[in-house]
Amino acid sequence: MDGVVDHLADERNKAQFDVEEMKIVWAGSRHVFELSDRIARLVASDPVFRKDNRATLSRKDLFKNTLRKAAHAWKRIIELRLSEEEASKLRFYVDEAAFTDLHWGMFVPAIKGQATEEQQQKWLPLAYKMQIIGCYAQTELGHGSNVQGLETTATFDPQTDEFDIHSPTLTSSKWWPGGLGKVSTHAVVYARLITDGQEHGVHGFIVQLRSLDDHLPLPGITIGDIGMKFGNGAYNTMDNGVTRNGKCVRSNVPRQLIYGTMVFVRQTIVSDASCALSRAVCIATRYSAVRRQFGSQNGGVETQVIDYKTQQNRLFPLLAAAYAFRFVGEWLKWLYTDVTQRLQANDFSTLPEAHACTAGLKSLTTTFTADAIEECRKLCGGHGYLCSSGLPELFAVYVPACTYEGDNVVLLLQVARFLMKTVSQLGSEKKPVGTTAYMGRVEHLMQCRCSVQKAEDWLNPNTILEAFEARTARMSVAVAQKLAQFANPEEGFLELSPNLVEASVAHCQLIVVSKFIEKLQQDIPGKGVKELLGMLCNIYALNILHKHLGDFLSTGSITPKQGSLANDQLRSLYSQVRPNAIALVDAFNYTDHYLGSVLGRYDGNVYPKLYEEAWKDPLNDSVVPDGYHEYIRPLLKNQLRNARL
Ligand SMILES: CCCCCCCCCCCCCCCCCCCCCC(=O)SCCNC(=O)CCNC(=O)[C@H](O)C(C)(C)COP(=O)(O)OP(=O)(O)OC[C@H]1O[C@@H](n2cnc3c(N)ncnc32)[C@H](O)[C@@H]1OP(=O)(O)O
Ligand SMILES: Cc1cc2nc3c(=O)[nH]c(=O)nc-3n(C[C@H](O)[C@H](O)[C@H](O)COP(=O)(O)OP(=O)(O)OC[C@H]3O[C@@H](n4cnc5c(N)ncnc54)[C@H](O)[C@@H]3O)c2cc1C
């Protein structure tokens, strides 16, 4: 910031906590903080990684530019001998969806998690050196959510010792796989295995798609891109593919591991949610401190919009959620590592919980984040609608996270099955553990009364936790009782699916709240850091309580008076967070390059830069626009009647 005026300096001086220590908490450790900081600067200073022109490039130019960036990223990774951790940070700060995400994020994990030792030895060295490029081809034109409904077949031919991969219908074309359209040379293709005329369910097969010499599709394979997607730039940097037919290499997968790749990716998507959310919140918070409207007295300055209680009521719960998702993401990573180690030792006991947690939290965090990015756009008023705010593109890139890797409602229904199973086993030998341990106290939770009498009582973490546990337990038991009235349970499940989804959401919110509270029980150094995190935890929980008051009241978990006291407490928490707001978003340590937003600039110098950005638009290349002579001048001169348009 040498020689640059910091328009947010006053805001930064107000902070009541140690921002540098908060940066470490946000990053997860000092090591990760230093590594991220170094890689973020490396990316920001490299002109190849420029991204401010994405919205104005044609699809072809955009795509070619992405290929250039991916190749350059790989070159830098080799030249600088970056570790896996550093390389993945580099990908993060380059901030552009590309085929490499699917290669590293799904193709390699699918082989690691599902292929035999022999197959791994053959394919992994090639994939690690990027001598082959892979994608994950599961979804078809006709089926995405219903994996068991996939139509592509893999028929074993004992004569040739080969599998014949066949898409017999239009609807069995593989449709959506990222990287498939234009780049991938190989794919893990999911197909129904057939041997001796017998079907054995859906399995993954490694298929070569394109020649490694001239990139042409191999005989029998038709392949292309599925077309433009939502938003300019945005996810259009990615080639999402369609393909039909093919012969292939082989695979042999243990039944329980088929879904393993999805569990892994859902876990990474939860961590990613806190990144996208914090980025939008950082932009909206800084801009809200810069922007002033109304309230000027005697010719003095107007009110910063961040000082309006409505703005705080919309913004601070999002800020709190960014921190909440960060910590639940950390915990989920631990859970995933733990379940992976167990699976290697043939212990499948914790897989159902890992599946329910990754599915539910993926759904909860992505739905919230997509809505929150749009809310941040509105929090920035008209300027939020400009591409230079960074918010439209962030929304367009982010919003498919609600659909890919499992539609969010379909995933909540998986959580509901797990919850209903847990309720049905209450009272049996099998005690609920982990994230459902609270169900073990169901008798108490069904009749306990919330003890809150004054607003400050809501600051007690045990009070919050019990209210959330009572709400979830009562909702789950109520829907389980309704289910029991159906002669056919599957019919009941379909009929009651809206209630089941609501119970699942309550369960997932409880997990996030309880993991935030657990985080606060750790030793967290730094002046005021723990206090501020405590406030954010309370804001996250009490805001949910306020938004879902219907659940809490209808289950009798709290009284209307207690609901109103929670709201009073929320307002008071907003006032306490207010002076710390800018410092709390500074703790994300985002570079201006990564934020990609004029409104979110670190120095708050918004207006001159907005003005500068506007002049860069290609429309401003000429003063008189193209088309003037054909369409505007004749209009003005009333000559249109005879003109041929
Ligand atoms: C440049 C340099 C770089 C350097 C390096 C840099 C590195 C960079 C790295 C970058 C990284 C970027 C990250 C990637 C980016 C992502 C991008 C987005 C990609 C998006 C990809 C996709 O979009 S890819 C397709 C995903 N498509 C689904 O997601 C389908 C959903 N649909 C289902 O998932 C099933 O269809 C559904 C519904 C469960 C029903 O499954 P079903 O039909 O079998 O029926 P049931 O419900 O009966 O389930 C039967 C029993 O299986 C149990 N179970 C079910 N699932 C289970 C599971 N997962 N784990 C365990 N158990 C599971 C269940 O609990 C039952 O258990 P039980 O019998 O005991 O009750
Ligand atoms: C950007 C993007 C990238 C993708 N990348 C890949 C990839 O790399 N590889 C790959 O294989 N796939 C990929 N996909 C596909 C993705 O995984 C699927 O689109 C996703 O799993 C949802 O499936 P669907 O499209 O069949 O939705 P559908 O299931 O058809 O959903 C339509 C509607 O039906 C509802 N619905 C469906 N089933 C139920 C039910 N049982 N109960 C209640 N409601 C239900 C859903 O909630 C939704 O509202 C990608 C998709 C996108 C958007």
From TrEMBL:
Pfam families: ACOX, ACOX_C_alpha1, Acyl-CoA_ox_N. Residues 460-637 form the Acyl-CoA oxidase C-terminal domain. FAD binds at residues 139, 178. GO terms for biological process: fatty acid beta-oxidation using acyl-CoA oxidase; lipid homeostasis; long-chain fatty acid metabolic process. GO terms for molecular function: acyl-CoA oxidase activity; FAD binding; fatty acid binding. GO terms for cellular component: peroxisome. Residues 18-133 form the Acyl-coenzyme A oxidase N-terminal domain. It comes from the Eukaryota. Keywords: FAD, Fatty acid metabolism, Flavoprotein, Lipid metabolism, Oxidoreductase, Peroxisome. InterPro entries: ACOX_C_alpha1, Acyl-CoA_ox_N, Acyl-CoA_Oxase/DH_mid-dom_sf, Acyl-CoA_oxidase, Acyl-CoA_oxidase_C, AcylCo_DH-like_C, AcylCoA_DH/ox_N_sf, AcylCoA_DH/oxidase_NM_dom_sf. It is found in: Peroxisome. Residues 259-420 form the Acyl-CoA oxidase C-alpha1 domain. The active site is at residue 405. Its cofactor is FAD. Belongs to the acyl-CoA oxidase family. This is Acyl-coenzyme A oxidase. It comes from Tripterygium wilfordii (Thunder God vine).
